[in-house]
Design goal:
The protein is of the alpha/beta class. It folds into two domains: 238 residues, Peroxisomal Thiolase, Chain A, domain 1 (3-Layer(aba) Sandwich), CATH 3.40.47.10; 148 residues, 3-Layer(aba) Sandwich (Peroxisomal Thiolase, Chain A, domain 1), CATH 3.40.47.10. It is 34% helix and 19% strand. It is built from 13 helices and 14 strands. It has a ten-stranded mixed beta sheet with strand order 5-4-6-7-1-8-14-13-9-10, with helices on both faces. A two-stranded antiparallel ribbon has the order 2-3. Helix 7 crosses helix 13 and helix 10 crosses helix 11. The longest helix has 17 residues. The two termini are 21 Å apart.
């Protein structure tokens, strides 16, 4: 069994088109939630989301590749490219042949599908774009990463709603730890801004009409976001041998199913996932100093997550710092866990914990130290990153600082 470290990260999000911009905005407590511009929202009750503004594909990708890639797949490649450069990977034939690429996406390229359906059902066309299937398939992100870098190892995509990329990173971690892959690129990507998708979220009545206020008494629902984040994982000994700088150690992964309701969470499933992550990491609860919460700002999620954290950590919950970065980058669905993993990694690395932005008034049902509105300097030994999905599917990642 190998010790596994993260040697590179890459991000494109509403907070910034690279990791530096993303982290700078998180530390500043800047919210990227603004009025939606990419879609006509006159027919939709909510108007705000965390969009990547002024995104020009040609600034990031070769013009010949763009027609073959939906927006979500473009984000996957852009973030993977930054992560690989950050890790200083030098490709050899053997490494290309065996590296794993595991991505998560909730929706894949459904925006492309909607464009085709619009032509069929609204404009009465009798055919759709010939590349509709390869553009819309959820594994397109993983496939294009492989093609961009000539990676021929195991590659696949996980779709477990809002836990997708956390599951992807956890599976990649286990593969590298066991020796099944000498390196892995793992994370997730999402591009959920298209009319049909927004109307579907509207119908669920879980979207806030103003902004995202996790754990606040005034919270009124989640706010959608988009983007991607990717991590490069490799054995500690390999990273040190090639002169790479490990950012953090990934030490545990836990997952569970509520086996309850398709949309209503319960505390037992998330608590079990956190306990399993701690057990997998061989960490005592007291070694955890920070949790990057799932923190969607829905009434039920924040209350239930608070109960799950208290159930898992007991008295130590009083000493835990907890924050939800969704208050700034929005809920990026299948990419959320990866974005929050990067936030967790940077927190351990830099000794700064990002805040829960937009916070107004404490809710007695969410009685944790949720780092309201301003980042906090803190040296933390280890942290958890929580991802809980519709369908009652839970994934928790454990990271440990490298002295």
């Amino acid at each position: 069994m190998h010790r596994v470290v993260v040697t590179g990260v890459g991000v494109i999000s509403a907070l910034g088109k690279n990791t530096a911009g993303f982290w700078e905005s998180l530390v500043a407590g800047t919210s990227a939630i603004r009025e939606i511009k990419s879609v006509d929202v006159s027919q939709i009750r909510f108007k705000n989301a965390a969009e990547i503004r002024n995104y020009v594909p040609e600034e990031h990708l070769e013009p010949k590749d763009i027609p073959f890639m939906d927006r979500f797949a473009q984000f996957a490649v852009i973030s993977a490219r930054e992560a690989i450069a950050d890790a200083g990977v030098e490709w050899t034939p053997d490494l290309r042949e065996n590296t794993a690429v595991i991505t998560g996406s909730c929706l894949g390229g459904r925006g492309t599908e909607e464009t085709g359906y619009w032509e069929l059902f609204h404009n009465n066309k009798n055919r759709v774009h010939p590349l509709t299937i390869p553009l819309s398939m959820s594994n397109a992100g993983a496939s294009h990463i492989c093609m961009q870098f000539g990676i021929e190892g195991p590659a696949y995509t996980i779709s477990t709603a809002c836990a997708s990329s956390a599951h992807a990173i956890g599976q990649a971690f286990w593969m590298v730890r066991s020796g099944a892959a000498p390196m892995a690129i793992a994370g997730g990507s999402e591009a959920p801004f298209f009319l049909g998708g927004l109307k579907a979220w509207e119908a669920l009545r879980v979207i806030s009409k103003d902004t995202c206020r996790p754990f606040s008494a005034e919270r009124s629902g989640m706010v959608l976001g988009e983007g991607a984040a990717m991590l490069v994982l490799e054995p500690l000994e390999t990273a040190l041998a090639r002169g790479a700088r490990p950012l953090v150690e990934i030490v545990g992964f836990g997952m569970s199913a509520d086996a309850g309701h398709i949309t209503q969470p319960v505390a037992t499933g998330p608590s079990r996932a956190m306990n399993l992550a701690l057990r997998d990491a061989r960490l005592a609860p007291e070694q955890i100093g920070y949790i990057n919460a799932h923190g969607t700002a829905t009434e039920a999620n924040d209350r239930i997550e608070t109960a799950a954290i208290r159930s898992t950590f007991g008295k130590h919950a009083e000493k835990l710092a907890v924050s939800s970065t969704k208050s700034m980058h929005g809920h990026a669905l299948g990419a959320a866990g990866a974005l929050e993993a990067v936030a967790s990694i940077r927190s351990l690395e830099r000794g700064i914990l990002p805040p829960t932005a937009n916070f107004l008034t404490a809710d007695p049902a969410c009685d944790l130290d949720i780092i309201p509105n301003q980042a906090r300097k803190a040296s933390v030994e280890a942290c958890l990153s929580n991802s809980f999905a519709f369908g009652g599917l839970n994934a928790v990642l454990a990271f440990k600082a490298i002295p």
